[in-house]
Amino acid sequence: MRRCVSKFTADWHMCFRNLNFFLVGFVGSSSVSRNFVAERSFSSHAAPKTYASSSAKLADDQTTDNSVSDMLVDSFGRLHTYLRISLTERCNLRCQYCMPSEGVELTPSPQLLSRSEIIRLGNLFVSSGVNKIRLTGGEPTIRKDIEDICLQLSSLKGLKTLAITTNGITLARKLPKLKDCGLTSLNISLDTLVPAKFEFLTRRKGLERVMESIDAAIALGYNPVKVNCVVMRGFNDDEICDFVELTREKPINVRFIEFMPFDGNVWNVKKLVPYAEVMDRVVKRFPDIKRLQDHPTETAKNFKIDGHCGSVSFITSMTEHFCAGCNRLRLLADGNFKVCLFGPSEVSLRDPIRSGADDEELREIIGAAVKRKKAAHAGMFDIAKTANRPMIHIGG
Q1: What backbone torsions phi and psi does residue 196 show, to the nearest 5 degrees?
Q2: How far apart are the first and last CA of the chain?
Q3: What is the rounded radius of gyration, in angstroms, for the C-alpha atoms of the chain?
Q4: Between the CA of residue 255 and those of 57, 226, 227, 249, what are the distances in Å?
Q5: What backbone torsions phi and psi does residue 175 show, to the nearest 5 degrees?
Q6: In the structure, what pLDDT confidence band is assigned to residue 161 with cuts at 50, 70 and 90?
Q7: In whole angstroms, how far apart are CA 392 and each of 89, 103, 166, 389?
Q8: Cβ-Cβ contacts under 8 Å for 330 (sequence gap 6 or more)
């Protein structure tokens, strides 16, 4: 894995000046209205027919006989069985697309959910039909009681998957204990294989530690190890095929994610590399790529390359949204409940808990919020103009 990192370092230093476009775009851009590329042009830029969706019928996954789960069904019939819980707003990196350059105002610790509150809400959701929980942040591994949280959540009857999304900086040394505590799958965020670019993007050193965490996860038997890569034009779009190479000999699922707008990351459509373009680049280098069967609620378009141990996926939130099959809900570190990543609406679950609400009252609050969920997000240009929280507050 270290050879794979060092391989690209020299070329990067030779063209470091070319990063000016990216830097100016992140720091200097102030208005989405200057971008005259029509949203429709991306939406209609579909991949070739051979890449068409192969997912099963949505209706097969959206039925339930559990009357309690009615709180998880929205007005469009979508059953939400996946809860993402942010454990903290703190992070040991300062990624530019996640955190504003001036930083963020952190919620005071007494206003964050305690471990017992997290477990209570986790149990409430799981007993109502949620079968997958993902722990996010900030950086979830820096929370001191994460092992206890994993142990208690993994013990909930009905929970099938306990996952984590992490930057991998401290994961390697913590992962054996987390696995013992019931962590079943993980995603590691990594946007470049070049140390200098990593330091520029995250405002910290640490690429080697992330690569060590990927290897540690593989050694512990995690299969696949998912690697999330946000593709940004002028920064890392020249590394797309290098990331795909990671899947050749190891059980890594590289997930290319379209650059999304959030408060403070100065989103610019010119930095967005649409799925179809990324796919075209991959196909030219790896013509033996084939579409896999996708689960109806899968956010990713999944592919396999002949002869590769791992796989490649594409998260097309901006150009080909997957709202019709959305089964995700979010619990933020401060106890706010969010039914859509891109929607500004939130409702507090912390406050009613601390005011003495019982589980039935909490179910009513949750159910009402779920019923208000819209059919789809507003589209990338409207999202860019809509007030929302920075990603580090929402949870990755």
Answers
A1: -65, -40
A2: 25
A3: 20
A4: 23, 7, 6, 16
A5: -65, -40
A6: very high
A7: 6, 10, 12, 8
A8: 83, 84, 85, 86, 337, 338, 339, 341, 394, 395
**Backbone conformation region of residue 35, classed left if phi is above 0, alpha if psi is from -120 to 50, else beta:** beta
Tokens 């991959």 correspond to: 282
pLDDT in tens, 305-354: 999 999 999 999 888 866 888 999 999 999 999 998 877 789 999 999 99
Token pair 């490649």 in the structure block, residue: 312
Which phi and psi (to 5°) does residue 147 adopt?
Answer: -65, -45
Place of tokens 């990603």: 391
Q: Which of the two residues, 378 and 195, has the higher pLDDT score?
A: 195
Q: Are 4 and 245 in contact (CB under 8 A)?
A: yes
* Whether 30 contacts 243, CB under 8 Å: no
User: Which amino acid is present at 270?
Assistant: K
- Residue 245's contacts (CB-CB under 8 Å, 6 or more residues apart) are 4
DSSP assigned state of 17: G
Helix (H) or strand (E) holding 126: helix 115-127
Element (H, E) at 22: helix 20-27
The answer to whether the CB of 5 falls within 8 A of the CB of 195 is yes
| CB neighbour class for 32 (10 Å; exposed up to 12, middle 13-18, buried from 19) | middle
Coil, strand or helix at 268: coil
pTM for the model: 0.81
SS3 (DSSP) at 61: helix
| H or E element in which residue 39 lies | helix 39-43
Contact criterion met (CB below 8 Å) for 165 and 396 = yes
